[in-house]
């Protein structure tokens, strides 16, 4: 960082070191510098890593609005990042903003492929969408809107089926058969 103040990877590693030391404020500053240095910095699994890690740091400490802001900014710079969509869906779901979360899970599902790097995020998006639909169904049922509740329950089942089809390996499917 002292040699090249625009070296985003150095700031990213510095942020990770600060987290290891428990210096979370300094970690957030290093992540922000990493983003300013290179807003398109990708990790090996092709996620815009500094946005994701900074948002997760904010979210872990209860700053969900800041996490949403970071992820929205990250998606503005990297529109095809399905992993950021998944993380944003998770944060919005934790905030109770289920309809918005559902839109981001759906976008993540469309953007992520079946590669080993993104498989866990695909599963997370599928499970998150199932969970959000289920929560919306429960809300509708509590409000006496039974038709909408039924629709959300059916949609939750669809997402959960997608999740279980992908989560179970081919070897496991053969063993069960």
What do you see in this structure?
This protein is mostly helical. The chain is 77% helix and 0% strand. The mean pLDDT is 86.
Entry summary:
With 177 residues, the protein is mostly helical.
What is the average of the pLDDT values?
Answer: 86
How far the N terminus sits from the C terminus, by CA atoms, comes to 56 Å
What does the largest sheet look like?
none
Secondary-structure element order, N to C: HHHHHHHHH
Low-confidence stretches: none
Question: What's the tally of helices?
Answer: 9
The helix fraction, in percent, is: over 70%
Percentage beta strand: under 5%
Shape descriptor: globular
Overall strand count: 0
Q: What structural category arises from helix and sheet content?
A: mainly alpha
- Rg is 18 Å
List keywords for this structure.
177 residues; mainly alpha; globular; 0% strand
Task: Summarize the topology.
Blueprint: H1 8-21, H2 24-37, H3 49-60, H4 64-77, H5 82-94, H6 98-111, H7 116-142, H8 146-167, H9 170-176
């Amino acid at each position: 960082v002292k040699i090249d103040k625009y070296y985003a990877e150095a700031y990213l590693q510095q942020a990770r070191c600060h987290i290891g030391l428990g210096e979370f404020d300094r970690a957030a500053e290093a992540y922000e510098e990493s983003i300013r240095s290179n807003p398109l910095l990708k990790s090996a699994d092709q996620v815009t890593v500094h946005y994701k890690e900074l948002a997760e740091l904010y979210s872990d400490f209860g700053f969900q609005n800041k996490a949403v802001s970071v992820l929205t900014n990250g998606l503005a710079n990297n529109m095809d990042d399905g992993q950021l969509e998944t993380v944003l869906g998770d944060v919005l779901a934790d905030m109770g903003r289920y309809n918005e979360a559902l839109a981001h899970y759906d976008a993540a599902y469309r953007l992520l492929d079946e590669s080993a790097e993104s498989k866990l995020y695909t599963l997370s998006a599928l499970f998150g969408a199932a969970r959000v639909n289920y929560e919306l169904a429960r809300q509708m049922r509590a409000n006496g809107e039974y038709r909408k509740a039924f629709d959300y329950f059916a949609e939750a089942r669809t997402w959960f089926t997608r999740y279980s089809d992908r989560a179970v390996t081919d070897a496991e499917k053969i063993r069960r058969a």
